[in-house]
Automatic annotation (TrEMBL), chain A:
InterPro entries: Solute-binding_3/MltF_N. The lineage of its organism: Bacteria, Pseudomonadati, Pseudomonadota, Alphaproteobacteria, Rhodobacterales. SUPFAM superfamilies: Periplasmic binding protein-like II (SSF53850). This is Transporter substrate-binding domain-containing protein. Residues 22-236 form the Solute-binding protein family 3/N-terminal domain. It holds the Pfam family SBP_bac_3. Residues 1-19 form the signal peptide. SMART domains: PBPb. Coiled coil: none annotated.
UniProtKB/TrEMBL annotation, chain B:
CDD domains: TM_PBP2 (cd06261). Residues 33-260 form the ABC transmembrane type-1 domain. This is ABC transporter permease subunit. It is found in: Cell membrane. Keywords: Membrane, Transmembrane, Transmembrane helix, Transport. It holds the Pfam family BPD_transp_1. It comes from the Bacteria. The chain crosses the membrane at residues 29-50, 71-92, 138-161, 194-219, 248-269. It is a multi-pass membrane protein. It comes from Fuscibacter oryzae. One of its GO terms (cellular component) is plasma membrane. PANTHER family: ARGININE ABC TRANSPORTER PERMEASE PROTEIN ARTQ, CATIONIC AMINO ACID TRANSPORTER, MEMBRANE COMPONENT. InterPro entries: ABC_transp_permease_HisMQ, MetI-like, MetI-like_sf. Belongs to the binding-protein-dependent transport system permease family.
Length: 240, 293
């Protein structure tokens, strides 16, 4: 115990040497199973497990923090954390303001969650979370879009009839449909949007991005990343 | 918390509920009530100090001080809260880190504002990346108190400014006739008498402050509304305690909390108003005198 205290004291005193090594990972904490805050109040989910493994492989000392989705990019730029790891799809628009790592989840299907299999998507508004690729997709494809700040609210909008469907990542919607007891179903129609899910960095942080890219590479090569994807998203999910 | 809670999916009924209500996240939820109460307890006097300073400056005989006071009141009152809370906090945080970077960063460091990004050396981060999560929470809380105090301070300043003007001129003139200096009139006559005029405005602000605490979430402090939304949302089997959409119950709980807070405040403010009216040359004071006589 004493040694531990001593180590902690040195860690705080020797900030010059240590401060560089602490990497703050920012996530949303509201998008299970990608990332969520579990019942103990800790960040949990696929990205927590993968992120911790990446940090171990890159010999980085990482800490987790949550930030709402709306302001997740401005707070990265302002330096409140160093990495966004929040199920963020790689798109050219985002690529203009942040730099992405290579994808750690292959381009995945987005699905429509509705109340019945024969819902007509043109018959009413389709819900999506604000500033997501799905929201852009709905708007661009002639459907009427309603946006919500959190994923939870998009699903609630379908339940209470404000929207006829939600468009979101299939991996997020599938457990919700499975556990609804038939009240909510996924349409057979799926959309493939985005260039996969990656971590986002400040443009000036190429060195940190390089470390994580190398770690993602090593996890892809030895199959641990694919195993993790299967563990969290089920056997149908695309792997590397 | 209890040993019976080790496997929440195997238990049900009352023991499930008691385990659920004592999960780590729920303890954070209960703690957030304390945070809101502490915020109110710290912000109210801080806003009073800002407001008193603003009001005193706004009626100062020295022109530059008066300009500063008036500009503060007009600027902060004129900007929507939500813009203030989003923009000001990021600017304040960057300002603090910039000042610290001047002191601790090696000479020749790059200018921190580069396009959309803000970068200072790791030693200048506030708090340091190595600090405990508690430090981050306390820093966020400090930013919140400071921002709330500035915003509400401007409104307080306007209320106090009006209250100072409302004290009958005859009272001040009498004091001057007794040979009191400007400062003595201010301290002995103006300040004690202005409260009764200020109280209705201040009590309004206090009520608004109670209801404005959910803005804390914009400042990165997780408040009771955040937790109610987060805990109440439906939970799939990924969570230890899966359940449906329970937000209604959580928000009903919050309604009880807010109504209790505002009701208790109303009773307290009514008493305070009675006490301050005693012996005052106002309608309320006169009514009390007649009732007593």
């Amino acid at each position: 115990m004493k040694k531990l205290l001593l180590a902690a004291t040195f860690a705080t005193l020797g900030t010059t040497a240590f401060a560089q090594d602490v990497v703050r990972l920012g996530t949303e904490g509201a998008y299970p199973p990608y990332n969520f805050v579990n019942d103990k109040g800790e960040v949990d989910g696929f990205e927590r497990k993968m992120g911790d493994e990446l940090c171990k492989r890159a010999s980085l000392n990482c800490t987790w923090t949550t930030n709402e989705w709306d302001s997740i990019i401005p707070n990265l730029q302002s330096g409140n954390y160093d990495v966004i790891i929040a199920g963020m799809s790689i798109t050219p628009e985002r690529g203009e303001v942040v730099d992405f790592s290579q994808p750690y989840i292959p381009p995945a299907s987005s699905a429509y969650l509705t109340l019945s299999k024969d819902t007509d998507l043109k018959s009413g508004p389709v819900a999506a979370q604000t500033s997501t690729i799905q929201a852009a997709f709905v708007a661009e494809n002639g459907m009427k879009l309603v946006e919500y700040a959190t994923p939870e609210e998009t699903v609630a909008a379908v339940k209470n009839g404000e929207a006829v469907a939600v468009l979101a990542d299939k991996d997020y919607l599938k457990p919700i449909a499975d556990e609804s007891g038939g009240a909510l179903v996924l349409l057979d129609k799926e959309e493939v949007i985005g260039g996969g899910v990656g971590m986002a960095f400040r443009k000036s942080d190429a060195e940190l991005r390089g470390k994580f890219d190398a770690a993602i590479d090593s996890m892809k090569k030895d199959g641990t990343l694919s195993a993790m994807i299967t563990e969290f998203f089920g056997p149908e999910a695309k792997t590397w | 918390m209890f040993s019976a809670c080790a496997d929440p999916k195997a238990i049900e009924g009352l023991s499930w509920l008691s385990c659920y209500l004592t999960s780590g996240k729920h303890l954070d939820f209960y703690w957030s009530f304390v945070i809101v109460l502490i915020l109110l307890a710290v912000t109210a006097p801080a806003a009073m100090i800002f407001g008193f300073g603003g009001a005193t400056m706004a009626r100062s005989p020295i022109a530059p001080l008066r300009w500063v006071g008036k500009a503060y009141i007009a600027m902060v009152r004129g900007i929507p809260d939500i813009i203030f809370f989003m923009f000001f906090v990021i600017a304040l945080d960057q300002g603090i880190e910039y000042l610290k970077s001047l002191a601790v960063c090696p000479a020749g460091s790059a200018w921190p504002w580069q396009g959309l990004e803000f970068r200072v050396c790791a030693e200048a981060k506030v708090p340091l990346a190595t600090s405990s999560p508690l430090m981050f929470q306390m820093y966020g809380f400090f930013l919140a108190v400071f921002t709330f105090a500035i915003v509400f301070g401007a409104f307080v300043a306007n209320v106090l400014f009006g209250a100072m003007q409302a004290v009958p001129r005859a009272q001040l003139e009498t004091a001057e006739a007794y040979g009191m200096s400007h400062g003595q009139v201010f301290r002995r006559i103006l300040i004690p008498q202005m409260w009764v005029y200020a109280l209705p405005g201040l009590s309004n602000l206090w009520m608004i402050l109670i209801k404005a605490t959910p803005l804390l979430f914009l400042l990165g402090v997780k408040d009771i509304v955040y937790y109610a939304r987060e805990l109440g949302g439906s939970k799939t089997q990924v969570y230890e305690y899966p359940h449906g959409d329970w937000r209604l119950y959580y928000f009903l709980g919050l309604m009880v909390f807010y109504l209790t807070m505002t009701r208790v405040s109303e009773i307290f403010l009514k008493r305070l108003s009675n006490r301050l009216s005693k012996g005052q040359a106002t309608a309320a004071g006169e009514a009390m005198r007649r009732a007593g006589a």
